[in-house]
Amino acid sequence: MKSDNDYRNTSPRRFRVPSNPASEIPTDSKVQSTRWLNEEEFVQLYRWLERPDTPVHPSYPRAVQLIMTAGQRVEEIVRLRVDHWGARERMMTGPRPRSF
């Protein structure tokens, strides 16, 4: 990910400074890391969400489980309402697009 404050994105003569004094500081990490849980961590988190050992609002574990199993974005889950659930079809429809 590129930094918003990357010296290469600014004018070289800004504030009458001929060069950026921080230009030698690396902007991107050389070591790539991941934000993924391995399978064991995934199962451990999912099981903890089924029976949390600390007080948690009842809807949070279910929302996180839905994100984990169905892959929705957090914003999509936050916007869901009861009327988005079709009990007969057993299908979550989500908010309708504004263009319709």
TrEMBL record:
Where do the segments described as Disordered lie? 1-31
Q: Which InterPro entries match?
A: DNA_brk_join_enz (IPR011010)
Question: What are the protein's GO molecular function terms?
Answer: DNA binding
Q: What is this protein called?
A: Tyr recombinase domain-containing protein
What organism, scientifically named, is this protein from? Bradyrhizobium macuxiense
